[in-house]
Every structure is written in structure tokens, then in C-alpha cells.
Amino acid sequence: AAAMSGLPAVTFTATATPAPPASLSAASALAGEAAVGTTVGAAPTVQVRDAHGNAVAGVAVTFAAAGGGSVAGAAQVTNAQGVAAVSGWTLGTTPGLNTLTATVQGLAPVSFTWNARAGQPASAAAASSIALDGGAGSAVTTLPAVRVTDSFGNAVAGAAVQFALTGGGGTITGASAATDANGVATLGSWTLPTQAGVVTLSAMAPPIAQPVVFTATVSPGSPASLTVNGSNGQTAVAGSAVALAPSVLVRDQHG
After folding, report:
1. Is 36 helix (H, G, I), strand (E, B) or coil?
2. What predicted TM-score, i.e. pTM, was given to this entire model?
3. What phi-psi label fits residue 243: left (phi over 0), alpha (psi between -120 and 50 degrees) or beta?
4. Tens digit of each residue's pLDDT (9 = 90 or more) over 165-222
5. Residue 54, class by beta-carbon neighbours within 10 Å (0-12 exposed, 13-18 middle, 19+ buried)?
6. In angstroms, what is the C-alpha Rg of the chain?
7. Across the strands, what pairs with 99?
8. CA 63 – CA 44 distance, rounded (Å)
9. First-residue to last-residue Cα distance in the chain
10. Cα 89-92-95 angle, rounded to 5 deg
């Protein structure tokens, strides 16, 4: 304002506007984790400021995804607070690191890094032979194993798998198992019953409804006893054949 005695004062006005963009910084978390194929919950956001720390509006910001993911609303313009946010960032379908980079011409870019982990169990399949065999009362040499994957076919580590005998008897150990880094869970042991025949075992990996079924054909063990089966104590004329052919019965140690 300017004033002089006896005259009206004169007032000058000036509007201060932000200086040109000088910095680009993150306005949301720079790192996180989510399941493969899902959209990151909090949209990555950046802010543009001038050399004095003032927000700069109307600045073009470009977002680009790397690592197999995709971005919606890649081209944005900062608002009155100097802020720009991507519309959506969907991670790739393969586990690993995904990167989203925000750039403004003439400024250092800002990168957001998200770890894409495998999704929830979606399918389970045998990771070993489903048809086994062994002697009565013996342990199977090839242990039943299952592989659990998500909806994109990625191995799911740490998934709970429950093994259970479903027919024919026998005993198992390690019925509750967790999948390893390759998505595989293996039964501790399976001792076949002493009765020859076919036995079954199933593996369940919730929330998957369909079990994986293994079968084992139990064969008799080594011969352990020899007994008369019939036609014993017959009488016949010397030099002639007996009426019924003698027979014997061979059994293993389990009968």
C-alpha cells in the first residue's frame, strides 16, 4: 500500500504462484505385498513440489508397471495439492517383485515395489505315483505326495494337507503336513495292512473340495508256512492212483 497526506491510499496486490516443479516424492507406501493377479489396495500416489516445498498443480505424471503387472490410468495430472495417483495397479500372475515407476519430465522418478506372492490354494494333484504296491505288513517305498497350486498354477507354500486312510486298513504317520517351497506335501510313512488286497489313502488340502486318492495293492509276503490242504490219509491199492490229488497250502507270516 502507498499513502500520502490528504490523498486516498493506493493498494497493490500480487498473487504468489508455485515455482516450476523441483521434486517428485512418494505420497503413499513405497513397498508392500499382495497375492498374484490382485490389485494393490492403496493406489500408489506421488506429490510434486517446487524448490520451496510448495505443491505444484497441473503437472503431467506418467506411471509404468514392470514385472508382469498392469496399470490403469497411467497418465495423470497433479491436483491442487500437487498429488497424482494411479487408477489401479494389478500385480502379475507369477510370484516375484513388481515395480511401478512414476515419472515427471526433468525430475528423478519414484518407484514403488510390491512382492507378488502365490494366491490361495485352488488345485491339488499327485506329486508321486497314485498306484503303489508292497508286501503285506510292509512300508511303501514311494511315499504319497501332493502339490498344491493357486488359480494361476503357482506353487503354494505352507498350505495344510491332511492325509487319511479311506479303505483297507494299515497305518500312517505324519498325516498332517504343510507344503514346502515347491508346493509339495509328503506323507510321513504308510505301512500296509497284513491282509492282501487293495487299500486307499486320500489327501485333502482345504479349501479344495476334491481329494487326491492313492491306491496300494497289497501282495502276500514271503512263504512262511506249508500245511496240508486236503486229501490226506487216503487208501488205495498198491500201484494205483489215490482218488484225490494231495494238495498243500502255502501262507506268508500273516497267514
Report:
1. coil
2. 0.76
3. alpha
4. 998 889 999 999 999 999 999 999 999 999 889 999 999 999 999 999 999 998 765 5
5. middle
6. 38
7. 66, 113
8. 9
9. 116
10. 125
